């Protein structure tokens, strides 16, 4: 991994003797390099054919541009075998002749090529006038100096000195007191003075006594004082009144216009959170039951793990189911085979009894997504860590076929007969075979998966989240392409990026059960693997949910697109490579994209990191982490209106985050009485989202009304809410799909209050 030019291989004793590379004789751990001619290896391949030790790398040998290949003895089995071959001239030169030695030789050649040093010859100084400026700025001593002469009687030179104690005040020659005195020749006027004052309140005790008086009834009559007729006429004809009216009439007109336009005394703050009710007494926030789906054969005693609406066909919804196990039991049983069918059911609003399509799965499905650019391609993550693909392009007509919606007053006997026919086809407690289901004309069509990932290079634990990555392509014919990359995460502390080759749909419809040997591709491997851990503390982060920015990558394809079944990766290649060699060579990553992502792990921690791989490692070091939730993160979703706002739900609280704000969430809820199990943003209003709880209730949060508690809650089921997915049938009709732990899918119609946003929401 990280060295595509190195190919490990096993050289037997016979091969070592033929090419003179015997271990501990011709090659040792210190002297491990051996140069072998390309013709000798080709001759050995022609002589011994399949039994040659170079047969696994024959393609590398034939395509090698040089005449001599470097074979290295791997004493420590660093690449898994006792020898490895170097498949590029540049890598061979770097191994045989390290870059440090080459740089030293180049430095010596450069030093020899330089001219010998020539001493600099000083030139005579030419005055440009700078000495005048220096002379002007120099300090000159112009003050007359005072001279002092200190002398002593000559006879005292060298005389002995005797030190005695003496009071300084008794003598006049050794002590001089300089007392202050007022000099009247000049005076200094004080300009400022600092004065400090301390104010102490005076305390005084006083008392008063009020006298109580008996109440008395009293009345007062006010009479207006009116001008006389002469005073009125004089006042109206005065110039003072005319000047006053002329000065204020413009302001009065503006005030009257404002009063007509709006009520200046209206309290907008109280009206913002005012609870309104409809005329019939019902609350204006509610979820109306529209339809429910269940299946006694595939969903009995199972829990719905994921819900997805069809991106282009209205009224089509898909669900996946898994065993009713806790999260710990799912991780323990992720490697065990299941004794029942694992399917994805596609339902239609026109037929709530029979599924339109059934997608067969190798294991229980934890999550799945439709391809946004080509909804006929469906990708899913299994509980054992594998990735599965379906192509339902041959069955699109069955989904788009219009069927009459049954009237509400349909005969109950006919509905019971239809249910009885479905129940009698299968004996109680006996699971029918695939052929029995496919042969029945009334049963839905069973679609087999076309591609499944390699078990060895897939996730080691259940795939908990899967997302398609949109791409931009450049082609000679300028034709649109599909989303060909997706990302998955799992609690095994890994995030995998998968590269999917372009599909070539068949023209003839499939008849009967498809031949799985033509479509099953167990060699599918991820393109990039990212391990989430901290190197210093050896702390691993098991991601449950992941959010990425919209990525842009560029393909320059050549030739026709390959089908999913036609691409087979060799078993000896590096495990994390593309499935298509031609596309991987032409893959160009843009430099101005954002490689940051958020993940929520099984411990309730939100991790913000960068997935861009460095040269020396394939792991992503967490940039920031927030331990806010006490349990597993079950929802981590970006707002459909703001690309930098996302919602996280886990345990008994939720939080709203803003990308770029590093000091925590911008909104955090208090702990609720029950556990939050699922949640989703509203597709119509930016300030509304829905949260499912373990008691079967749905909390409706409207942030414009309340931020400390839900605006409304409604009971949907008597079991745990497992998944929530909003959908839109038309601008006036919005749905909310809710699944529970009993295998029942509830489709609820959202009221108009929750689907019509305000102008500045």
TrEMBL record:
GO terms for biological process: cilium movement involved in cell motility; inner dynein arm assembly. The keyword Repeat applies. Transmembrane segments: none annotated. Keywords: Cytoplasm, Repeat, WD repeat. One of its GO terms (cellular component) is inner dynein arm. InterPro entries: Dynein_IC (IPR050687), WD40/YVTN_repeat-like_dom_sf (IPR015943), WD40_repeat_dom_sf (IPR036322), WD40_rpt (IPR001680). It is found in: Cytoplasm. GO terms for molecular function: dynein heavy chain binding; dynein light chain binding. It comes from the Eukaryota. PANTHER family: DYNEIN AXONEMAL INTERMEDIATE CHAIN 3, DYNEIN INTERMEDIATE CHAIN. This is WDR63 protein. It comes from Mionectes macconnelli.
């Amino acid at each position: 991994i990280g060295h595509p030019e190195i190919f490990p291989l096993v050289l037997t004793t016979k091969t070592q003797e033929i090419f003179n590379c015997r271990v501990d004789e011709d090659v040792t751990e210190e002297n491990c390099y051996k140069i072998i001619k390309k013709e000798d290896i080709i001759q050995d391949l022609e002589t011994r054919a399949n039994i040659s030790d170079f047969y696994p790398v024959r393609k590398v040998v034939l395509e090698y541009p040089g005449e001599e290949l470097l074979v290295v003895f791997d004493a420590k089995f660093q690449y898994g075998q006792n020898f490895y071959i170097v498949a590029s001239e540049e890598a061979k030169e770097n191994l045989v002749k390290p870059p440090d030695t080459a740089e030293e030789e180049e430095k010596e050649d450069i030093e020899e090529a330089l001219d010998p040093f020539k001493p600099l010859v000083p030139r005579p100084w030419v005055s440009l006038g700078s000495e005048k400026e220096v002379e002007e700025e120099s300090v000159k001593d112009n003050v007359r100096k005072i001279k002092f002469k200190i002398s002593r009687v000559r006879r005292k030179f060298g005389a002995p000195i005797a030190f005695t104690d003496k009071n300084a005040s008794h003598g006049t020659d050794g002590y001089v007191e300089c007392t202050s005195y007022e000099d009247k020749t000049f005076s200094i006027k004080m300009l400022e003075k600092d004065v400090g004052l301390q104010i102490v309140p005076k305390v005084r005790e006083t008392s008063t006594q009020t006298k109580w008086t008996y109440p008395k009834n009293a009345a007062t009559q006010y009479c207006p004082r009116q001008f006389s007729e002469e005073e009125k006429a004089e006042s109206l004809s005065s110039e003072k009144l005319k000047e006053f009216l002329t000065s204020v009439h413009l302001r009065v007109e503006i005030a009257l216009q404002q009063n007509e336009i709006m009520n200046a005394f209206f309290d907008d703050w109280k009206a913002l959170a005012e609870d309104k009710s409809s005329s019939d007494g019902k609350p204006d926030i509610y979820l109306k039951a529209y339809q429910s789906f269940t299946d006694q054969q595939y969903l009995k005693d199972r829990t719905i793990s994921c819900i997805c609406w069809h991106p282009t066909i209205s009224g089509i919804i898909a669900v996946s189911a898994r065993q009713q196990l806790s999260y710990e039991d799912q991780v323990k049983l992720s490697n065990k085979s299941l004794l029942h069918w694992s399917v994805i059911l596609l339902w239609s609003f026109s037929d709530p009894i029979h599924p339109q399509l059934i997608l067969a799965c190798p294991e229980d499905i934890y999550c799945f997504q439709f391809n946004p650019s080509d909804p006929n391609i469906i990708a899913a993550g299994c509980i054992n860590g594998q990735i599965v693909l379906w192509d339902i392009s041959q069955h699109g007509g069955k989904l788009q076929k219009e069927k009459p919606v049954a009237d509400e007053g349909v005969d109950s006997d006919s509905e019971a007969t239809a249910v009885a026919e479905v129940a009698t086809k299968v004996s109680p407690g006996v699971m029918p075979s695939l052929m029995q289901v496919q042969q029945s004309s009334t049963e839905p069509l069973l679609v087999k998966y076309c591609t499944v990932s390699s078990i060895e290079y897939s996730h080691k634990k259940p795939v908990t989240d899967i997302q398609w990555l949109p791409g931009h392509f450049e082609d000679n014919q300028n034709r649109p392409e599909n989303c060909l990359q997706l990302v998955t995460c799992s609690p095994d502390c890994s995030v995998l990026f998968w590269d999917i080759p372009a599909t070539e749909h068949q023209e003839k419809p499939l008849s009967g059960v498809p031949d799985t040997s033509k479509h099953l591709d167990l060699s599918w491997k991820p393109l990039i693997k990212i391990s989430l851990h901290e190197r210093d503390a050896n702390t691993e982060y098991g991601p449950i949910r992941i959010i990425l920015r919209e990525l842009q990558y560029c393909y320059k394809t050549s030739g026709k697109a390959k089908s999913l079944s036609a691409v087979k990766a060799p078993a000896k290649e590096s495990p994390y490579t593309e499935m298509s060699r031609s596309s991987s060579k032409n893959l160009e990553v843009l430099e101005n994209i954002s490689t940051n992502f958020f993940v929520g792990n099984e411990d309730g921690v939100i991790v913000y990191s960068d997935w861009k791989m460095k040269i020396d490692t394939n792991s992503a070091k967490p940039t920031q982490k927030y331990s806010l939730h006490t349990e597993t993160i079950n929802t981590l979703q970006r707002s459909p209106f703001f690309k930098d706002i996302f919602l996280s739900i886990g345990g008994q609280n939720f939080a709203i985050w803003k990308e770029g704000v590093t000091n925590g969430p911008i909104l955090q809820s208090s702990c609720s009485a029950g556990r939050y199990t699922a949640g989703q943003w509203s597709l119509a209003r930016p300030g509304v989202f829905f949260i499912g709880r373990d008691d079967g209730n749905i909390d409706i949060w409207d942030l414009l009304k309340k931020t400390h508690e839900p605006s409304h809650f409604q009971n949907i089921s008597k079991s745990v809410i497992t998944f929530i997915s909003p959908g839109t049938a038309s601008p006036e009709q919005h749905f909310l799909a809710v699944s529970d732990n009993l295998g029942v899918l509830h489709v609820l119609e959202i009221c108009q209050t929750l689907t019509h946003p305000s102008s500045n929401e």
